[in-house]
Amino acid sequence: MTPNEFPLDTTKTEESLGIQEASMRSLIDQEVTALPGGNETAEAAIAENTVIAKVPFGGVAPVDLEQRIAELQRQEKALQQNITQLQATKSELQGQMTATQAAIASLLQEGLKELEQRKRDLQITVEQLERRQERIRAEMRTTFAGTSQDLAIRVQSFKEYLVGSLQDLALAADQLELTKFKEPEKPPIPIAVAAMTPQTPTPKFADESFEGQTKKIRSLIDQYRSRPDYYGSPWQLRRTFEPIHAERVSNWFFTQGGRGALRTMGSRLQNILITSAIVSVLQELYGDRQTTLVLADSPERLGEWRRGLQDCLGITRSDFGPDRGAALFEDAFVLSQKADRMVKDGLLPLVVIDETEEQIDLTLLQYPLWLAFAPNPQAPSYSNY
């Protein structure tokens, strides 16, 4: 702002000075009248006061006003510069604030999308787990309790039927009068052919005539229990053997004569351990003539048997096969065909039947050695499902 923007109104200034001068005169007259001395003193005081009042406005006041105006103009310019700087700073801050708000909004949007995606994934996972839980519960209701009980009832019914049929058959045989026929004489077998024909051994572990073999079996079982060899040769038991396992193996050899069923241990791995001990003993007795044929109803269970036998006996996958030391089968008919060929070749097959086999083919019970694991209806094995 220039000096012309602040014009000095001298007329109004003189009028205000005159009013002030008149009021001062009236006040002086009143004070002088009240003082002793008369009108002379009053006129002298008025004259002196008039001179004092006229001096500031007559010579010094206009110069001070111009300096004041110039100073105010300088202050105005400084304030305008400050305002301009503040406006620029404000604009910059507004820009930064806008950018910050946009960045925050973008981050919030991305975070919200990620949280929504995780929420959807968790909901899908929860739904899958709930469906799986319901499926497992339904399977437990239908498989563990129902099927096991039904299997126990069917086995008991078959046992009663078989016992009754055998009793009836024995009574009928006693009542029959059979005519004795003279058996035809068999032609003598040439010595060379008889020497070449392999004979399948017939194990009789519970017979007193096999006392030496019985001592060896007991010695091997005691060795597995008290002195385990974790780095022994292949086909030798390499795992810890507890007294309960030794009792099951001894019962199978000496009470059942190598042909019978054992109650499951509640775990397939425990059943494999017992089977491995029996196979190890048979390998010590008969060597390569002994083979193990395992029957289970699914590839998964056969895979568990293969891995368990490898771990317990120190063998490899190359030891499994139709013409090897162990073989795995899902079909009982195929297993019986293989066992028949082995018997004809003079080998000694051990038929092992997994506990999940609900029905046992009677043809499997004709071989010299067979071992079946029977499920426990009161405590079903959860590892089988």
Describe the structure.
- This protein is an alpha/beta fold and 385 residues long.
- It has two domains: 3-98, no CATH class; 204-384, Rossmann fold (3-Layer(aba) Sandwich).
- Helix content is 64%, strand content 7%.
- The chain is built from eight helices and five strands.
- It has helices spanning 10-34, 38-175, 191-196, 211-226, 243-255, 268-286, 299-313, 332-344, and strands at 259-263, 290-295, 326-329, 348-353, 369-374.
- It has a five-stranded parallel sheet, with helices on both faces.
- The radius of gyration is 59 Å and the shape is rod-shaped.
* Rg on CA atoms, Å: 59 Å
CATH architecture label of the largest domain? 3-Layer(aba) Sandwich
Overall 3D form:
rod-shaped
* Strand order in space, largest sheet: 1-5-4-2-3
Distance between the termini: 98 Å
Tell me the name of the CATH class of the largest domain. Alpha Beta
Helix content: 55-70%
Count of all domains: 2
The helix/strand class is alpha/beta
Number of helices: 8
Q: Provide the low-confidence segments as ranges.
A: 1-10, 44-60, 179-197, 381-385
Summarize the helix and strand pattern as letters. Answer: HHHHHEHEHEHEE
Overall number of strands: 5
Global mean pLDDT: 77
CATH topology of the largest domain: Rossmann fold
Major beta sheet, specifics?
5 strands, parallel
